[in-house]
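Meet today's protein:

…
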Amino acid sequence: MKKNKKTDQYFESYELTKDPFPVNAYDNILFLTPELTNRIQQIKKLIVETDKLIVVSSASGAGKSSLADYLDSIKEKNWKACLVQADTDMDRETLAYEIIQQASPDKADEKGMSIPQLHKLLELSSKTEQVPVFIIDDAHKLPIETLEFILELSALKYQETCFHFVLFANEAITDKLNSETLIELTSQLVTTIYLPSLSLAQLKEYIDNRLGSSGEINEYPFSDDDIKEIYTISAGLPKGVNILAREKMLAKLAPESKPKTLLTISIASIIVIVLAAGFYLTSSQDPVTEPSQVIAVAPPQPASPPVATT
C-alpha cells in the first residue's frame, strides 16, 4: 500500500505492522461467525446432495469474495474446485476458457475449443468420480447470455455426474435471474443463500481480532460509544466497519483538524449507509440464528450440442 504523511502517522502512532482496516484493497481474511459457518455447511451439503446451481447473495460489503476464496480453499474429498473472477465482458467462450485453464490446464491451449473441452471434462469427472465445483465471484457482473450458459451447463449430466456452480453475487443478480430470458431455467435449477451481517458483539470481536493481528497496539482506539456508532451506521457489514473504524482512528490523531475530519467521517458514513441499505433489502428474506462464538480464519451459446444423459 502506498503511504503518505497521514498514513505514516497512522502506522507509527498506533504501532501497526499492517493496516487493520483496509478499504481500498482486496481483503481475503474471513471472519467466521456461527451464522457464516452455517452457510458454508449449507453450501457443502447442497453440492453433495443436489444438482442445483447455488447463488450466494449479499449486500455489497458483506464479505462474499472472502467467502468465495474460503470455499475454493476447502479440500473436500473428490472435489475439483476452481475460482473464476467474473466481469461484465465475460462471454460464454471466455468463461469456459477460464474454467478449463484451472480444471484441465493441459487442455487450455486453444481458446476456441474451450466449450467442447468442458463437455469432455464432465465425462472425465464421471469416470474418475470427481465432483467439479466451479465458484464464480462477482457473478452479478455477468451478461445475461453468460448466466444462461451457466444454467445450461448446470442442467447437463453424464451418467450421475454434473457441474456444480456456486455464484457469489450482490443482490443485483436477482433481477437478471428473474428476467424473461432466464426465469424458466432458474425456477427449476437455482437455490439461493443469503449472507448475514455481524451482530454488535461480533463486530466488537471482528475489530479486536483485526487490531490484534496488525501489531502491538499501544492504546485501544475505540470507546464503547464508538463501537455502537460503527455498528449502527455500518449495519454490521465488514466493508462499512473497515471504512468507519479507519476514519475514527485517523480522526483521533489530528484533533486540531477536527472539522475536516468530521466531514471526512460524514462522507464515509454516507458511503456506508448506502451499503447498509442494500443489506437490509437482502437480509429481510433470511432470518439468522442468535450469534455466539466467532473465530477468524485466513484462507490458506451453447456452441456445441449439450452432453446427452447416458
Observations:
- The chain has two domains: 5-30+199-297, 34-194.
